[in-house]
Specification:
This is Iron ABC transporter permease. It is found in: Cell membrane. It comes from Planomonospora alba. InterPro entries: ABC_BtuC-like, ABC_transptr_permease_BtuC. The protein has a single domain, classed as Orthogonal Bundle (ABC transporter involved in vitamin B12 uptake, BtuC). The radius of gyration is 20 Å and the shape is globular. With 333 residues, the protein is mainly alpha-helical. The longest helix is centred in the N-terminal third of the chain and has 36 residues.
Amino acid sequence: MTLTRRPEPGAYGAAPGRVATAAVLLAVVAVAHLLASGQPPGAVTGLLDGAADGRAEKIVWELGVPRLLTALLTGAALGASGYVLQAALRNPLAAPEFSGVNPGAVLGILGGLTLGLFPADSAAGALLAALAGGALGGGTTWLMSARRPPADLVVHGLLGSALLAGLTTMLLAYQPGRFGNALRWLIGSVDGRVWEHLALASWWIAGGVAVAWACSGVLAVLSPGDDHAASLGLHPGLGRAVALTTAIALTAGAASLSGAISFVGLVAPHAARRLGGRVLTAAATGAVLLAGADTLAQFAGHLLDGAHRLGVPTGVVTALAGAAVLIRLGRSQ
């Protein structure tokens, strides 16, 4: 399957109107997210007009804002990663969860916790473990699809993902007592992150998005086909390896924060292309989508369990919404 790319005159610089629209949309989603997080109703507005008391300010800054930033960073990383994968593999169904990278990253985190390689609250440990696991998952998929068309890599990615998911299940069954919080890694959740986690993940994800943006020219050359890339002097294998390494790094950063959030990396690139954008548009779209999904998850938590609030993992919302999009994409191919 080959992606159809339209001319994108604003590829490297967004039009002022688009930037303004994105800023307004992001602000609306951010305010709705903070209001949905269960903070006192006057806490958010109090911060805006300087009238918040110390307790309300502490609640917002230590609970609400880190959760919002976690959603934005994770969504941006997955959106950019998905765009890179779809362009480099020339497959509109390519996504971190369908290439073995995301399942591998989660397996790496849970494996590192099992072996005691890092404490459960270590941001650096989770990132390194996710990077190693993502590289293992992506590398396994790459080897399985060697000497085959790049578009076929997604098929082997699904097989590799199933294998990695099976290993993760075996790991959980072997020592179930060690994984009281395994659900957040397996399904995906942006809750429970603090500023220490964001301090590391923010620069990692920002750097990854910057590298992906710098590779926009390489992706544009790879998308039409390997013969086209070679005719322009680009070694297809080398260019694709750089792109996939960037995608693995971005996915690992997202997984170290929020676990296996699914379908954002699939949906955001399609939305970005409809908007006439590339990597940065996909990152911004992913950020807004995941923050919006978490807002819905928090509202659903209020509705399902009133005063006690049954937590609804964000990954549940993205999985339900993404499944519908996947069905539509599958029928259109």
